[in-house]
Amino acid sequence: MYGLSGASGRHCCLWCLIDGSTMTKPLAERSMSQPRNLHQLETDHRQFTESGGNIKRAKFFNNVIRPHLLDVPIDHVAIPALHISLGVFAKLYDLLEKAAHELDIQRACEEGKMVPSETQETPTSSFENHISRIRHAQNLEQEAEHKMAKAQRLLEIASWLNLAENADVQSTPPEVMQLYEQTSKLQAQATELENQEQAIIKSTSFQFRNGPSVQSLERVLREIGVERQAYHGGSFIGNHIHKCCQGDNMQRLCALIATAVPEKLPQIRQRAEEVASSYTELLRLFAACHEGYQHQEVHSQV
After folding, report:
1. Which of 6, 33, 161, 290 lies deepest, with the highest CB count within 10 Å?
2. pLDDT above 60 for 169
3. CA 14, CA 12: separation in Å to the nearest integer?
4. In whole angstroms, how far apart are CA 65 and each of 2, 78, 160?
5. Contact criterion met (CB below 8 Å) for 109 and 134
């Protein structure tokens, strides 16, 4: 609309001439950038055209490569607050969801090591089935280790007997051959168990949003009236962001991540509490920014 080359240009800001490298610096370390205006846009575009209009040299003309289509003064153009909030919140929520999924994976692995109770019911979800299969794989691993250790002991005995009884004889005694055969059989059984274990580990998984920690996030969203757009990849809309930023909803969103992990898993519970605390603060800061630019007043700072 105003003739700039795009967000990847050196001078991509519509409101001033700040360059990309300066944008990466903390606000306190930046100097005041020269504001743009319509007259300067026209001058930059004329100079760009007169120099040959080479897009690769756009940065030398403040990235103005086309004439502006609107005569609305630049200081009357509102920042795209909705798109900023949608993009930033979607990114933060995706990171939160991935952190919750990692907690679910760690929890499944730890619970898989635990001895199931005699009254344990048949798995009813993909997460519970995942834990059950992990337990089965770990049982196979233990059985394989037991057989391999037994095979190693038999091999040591057979080797010692062969040396003791066959020092001057070329043929191996039958009892030693029998031990060797038992050793080979145990090693083959151990290898087969290890293969079964690896096959289970490779095949078992649960869907990204089926773990208890991730489901706790979805539950809070539904409670506060946020129904994500399933037909648009689970995206958010503007009113969703507004609802999430109200009251203590951000804190509620993160708190259940910690409580979703049972106390019998203290290390994972501690990690979950750290994740909840970090994202609570991060989303609180986002909510403050969202509130700061979602209004109809003139912005004193951009």
Report:
1. 290
2. no
3. 6
4. 9, 22, 86
5. yes
